[in-house]
Amino acid sequence: MRTFKPLGDRLLVLPDAPIAKKTTGLAEPPSQKEAPTEGIVVAVGPNIRCTCGLTDCPVAGDYAVKVGQRIQYTKYAGRDVMHNGVKHKLLRLEEVEGIIEDDGE
Q1: Looking at 6-69, which runs of residues are DSSP E strands?
Q2: How far is it, in rounded angstroms, from Cα 73 to Cα 76?
Q3: Which of 7, 26, 42, 98 has the CB geometry, 3.0–4.6 Å to 12, for a possible disulfide?
Q4: Beta-carbon neighbour count of residue 69 at 10 Å?
């Protein structure tokens, strides 16, 4: 199995499955499925830090995106890449809208 290490401020994300639009009973062509905007972070680049811009930010660990977290990203973000036969997204940190946390309910 090969590994992928993103460079700079990039992340490798495994997107959720495409979301089918509701139809009125007609068969839906594959092109009508909406692209997912959520996924799981698989790998992060070395420059994923706090977005405040300070190199010595005391709270950088609290704001950094980490492997295993679920994130939401912009609709047309990144580009598709194949990794170990599976389609992933390669995103820049600025394309991430937020981290999704489960509140346990």
Answers
A1: 10-15, 38-44
A2: 8
A3: 42
A4: 17
Residue among 99, 55, 92, 56 at smallest CA distance from 77: 92
Bridge partners for 86 per DSSP = 83
| Residue 47 vs residues 5, 9, 56, 58, 82: alpha-carbon distances, Å | 12, 5, 13, 16, 22
- Which amino acid is residue 66, in one-letter code? K
The span from the CA of 53 to the CA of 93, in Å, is: 13
Token code pair at residue 39: 């996924």
pLDDT mean over 9-32: 73
pTM of the prediction?
0.72
The Cβ-side half-sphere exposure at 92, using a 13 Å CA radius, reads 5
Q: Which amino acid is at 91?
A: L
Paired tokens of 76: 């047309």
Is there a contact between 51 and 64 (Cβ–Cβ < 8 Å)? no
